[in-house]
Design goal:
Largest sheet: 2 strands, antiparallel
Structural class: mainly alpha
Strand order of the largest sheet: 1-2
Number of strands: 2
Shape: elongated
Oligomer: single chain
Helix content: 55-70%
Number of domains: 1
Distance between the termini: 35 Å
């Protein structure tokens, strides 16, 4: 996943931060409260403005040397792993 970034979105993020009222935060004397308040406002604006986008790449998924048999074996191995990963039993299950 990649963050969807461009100059327009970054400018909007900066303008929303500058439009935010920061007086309540700076009137506080406890550093932890100041940090948490700032972080909450910053992250709220960040996640509202920036979205994640899925990376569509076939670089890692397409390998001409991987045959159908290898894919089936990998799939079966994954099924066995998921079904046994929480077990303390050392005997193999087939």
């Amino acid at each position: 996943m990649l963050w969807n970034l461009n100059n327009f979105i970054i400018d909007e993020f900066q303008s929303k931060l500058s439009a935010e009222s920061w007086e309540d935060i700076f009137e506080e004397s406890d550093r932890n409260v100041i940090f948490n308040s700032f972080s909450n406002i910053d992250l709220k604006i960040f996640y509202a403005r920036f979205t994640k986008r899925k990376l569509n790449s076939t670089y890692n998924t397409y390998n001409p040397w991987i045959t159908r048999g290898i894919n089936v074996s990998c799939h079966n191995r994954r099924i066995l792993y998921v079904s046994n990963r929480g077990s303390n039993d050392t005997t193999p299950k087939l």
